[in-house]
Amino acid sequence: QPPRAGQLLTLLIDYEAGEGPGVCWLAPEQTAGKQKPYMYTQGQAVLNRSFFPCFDTPSIKFTYSATVKVPEGFTAVMSATSWEKQKDNTFVFKMSQPIPSYLVALVVGDIVSADVGPRSRVWAEPCLIEAAKKEYDGVIEEFLAVGEKLFGPYVWGRYDILFMPPSFPFGGMENPCLTFVTPCLLAGDRSLVDVIIHEISHSWFGNLVTNATWGEFWLNEGFTMYAQRRISTEVYGLPYTCLEAATGRALLRQHMDATGEDHPLNKLRVVIEPGLCLFLGVNPDDTYNETPYEKGYCFVSYLAHLVGDQSKFDAFLQAYVNRFKFQSITADDTLAFFLEYFPELREKGVDSIPGCEFERWLNTPGWPPYLPDLSPGQQLMRPAEELAELWAADGLNVEAIEAVDITGWRTYQLVYFLDQVLQKSPLPEGNVERLSKMYPKISKAQNAELRLRWCQIILKNNLEAEYSKVKDFLHSQGKQKYTLPLYRAMWGGSETARALAMETFSATAPQLHINVQNYVKKILGLE
Q1: 448, 187 Cβ separation under 8 angstroms
Q2: Which residues does UniProt mark as catalytic (predicted)?
Q3: 505 is in an annotated binding site
């Protein structure tokens, strides 16, 4: 029968899914326990079309339910507001809030959970669950409470974290109710818990108010970076947050130097031809870069700077979330609402201040026309810069070095110090060996951010005595952001370093994500 206008239809589609790029099947050796296989889905940006039939665009939101039957000895979890286990190892899920397709996620594996707060639990393989519980007990609720105070109610019910197998190529994926994260966050001393603040911030920016197209990804990530740094300022103070933002700005600088400032990806509004991506075999992940995050953060900071009063801008963010919750919007919607909310700024014509026009922010590639003031971070940066200077000197001033106590330095201050040392490397003969002995907190760190920098320093200084640390780190995890820089450094180094790259890759390739394997092959000329 021809349906009437406005009549609701139920459509039943019979389909099979298997080998698509959105569904990752891991062999036991790619997991932490090495005993059982594992499967997970990764929808962002346009991969869930290979997992289930959907309108695979962030412009459309829907609720969903799912029934998942898995073999004995396995557990299924999804990004859903309710979760129920029935007989025959069947799990039933419901997501009662509307979400875009890329946020539907499923994991099946040998996983268990532990409570870490009134509305939070951690999920992990049995061999990791104790470490996960110890690292996150009590901290998530603090971050959620500050987020709610700043941005309004947390609407997703639970906030659980799933620690993925070591081969998971990303830092985190903000699937609602169930964030997926790299096991690299289990540093053993809570030194990386603030990475979770970024994923928690997506609960308002990205998951609740969503970019309608991937060409305006900064609406998700720029606002989330701003929100993350607001929460971090409340929890850890302004100096530390400015220091973290300075490391972010350095990454943006590196990225723009590598691509050239006027590269078309270095604007906030990127033209993505509909459908062209997959047709041309362009993986949207290849367009992923620092611009929407850090340049987006600068634009949101510029809007706050125009308002000139933090509490007024916080109130605006809360009104913005409330106005557009459960919707997908464009930058034009965001900026029109900003000018409507602050009519006195609209009168002043703040959208067209020469050099900082909103239009220019969106459509001109290159360095941000406005940079927020990070000088409060100087009190943490200056000591790190001075210490790096001392270590780069020809004759070491041991007395001056010993006078600096780094035991109280937090992760980003140490990272900033190591970035400075790396820039000054290779250091004079013998200095790196002394540095390694003097700071076991750095050279023997379990913290992945410190391990990455220490491995880079080892390679840049050709410190063959510690090459085993590079090998161990690459055997322990497969995160893209850690793996590729180390292979680039080895490949650009000595014969021994190149041999180390080949040997490590042939041993670890099976445990890497397919995308990461291919990127490493490119670096090593194995294509």
Answers
A1: yes
A2: 199 (proton acceptor), 293 (proton donor)
A3: no
Residue 75 DSSP symbol? E
pLDDT tens profile 346-381: 999 999 999 999 999 999 999 999 999 999 999 999
Please check if 35 is assigned to a binding site: no
Q: Is 70 exceeded by the pLDDT of residue 433? A: yes
Give me 379's structure tokens.
């009190």
Domain 209-373 has CATH 1.10.390.10: yes
Q: What is the 3-state secondary structure (H, E, C) of 32-74?
A: CCCCCCEEEECCCCCCHHHCCCCCCCCCCEEEEEEEEECCCCC
CATH architecture of the domain with residue range 23-137+157-168: Sandwich (2.60)
- Calculate mean pLDDT across residues 381-393: 97
Asked whether the predicted pLDDT for residue 275 surpasses 70, the reply is no
Give the position of tokens 């000088």: 375
Domain boundaries, the chain: 23-137+157-168, 209-373, 378-524
* pLDDT average, residue stretch 330-353: 98
Catalytic residue among 135, 199, 290, 449: 199
Is residue 417 within 8 A of residue 453, CB to CB? The reply is no
216 catalytic residue (yes or no): no
The Cα–Cα gap between 206 and 194 comes to: 19
Mean pLDDT throughout 231-255?
93
293 included as an active-site residue: yes
For 503, the enclosing helix (H) or strand (E) is: helix 495-508
Could you tell me which residue, 143 or 188, shows the higher pLDDT? 143
What whole-number distance in Å separates Cα of residue 78 and Cα of residue 179?
10
According to the annotation, is 170 in a ligand binding site?
A: yes
CATH assignment of 378-524, given 3.40.50.11540, 2.60.40.1610, 1.25.40.320, 3.20.20.70?
1.25.40.320
Query: Which amino acid is residue 452, in one-letter code?
Result: L
195: confidence class by pLDDT, cuts 50, 70, 90: confident
The number of residues making up the chain comes to 527
DSSP, collapsed to helix, strand or coil, labels residue 341 as: helix
What tens digit of pLDDT does each residue of 447-466 get? 999 999 999 999 999 999 99
Q: Name the residue among 193, 347, 332, 313 with its Cα closest to residue 268.
A: 332
Structure tokens at 272: 């993505």
Phi, psi dihedrals of residue 63, rounded to the nearest 5°: -90, 165
Lay out the sheet containing 61-69: strands in order across: 61-69, 90-100, 82-86
Phi, psi (deg, nearest 5) at residue 127 = -70, -15
Confidence at residue 189, expressed as pLDDT on a 0 to 100 scale: 86
171 is in an annotated binding site: yes
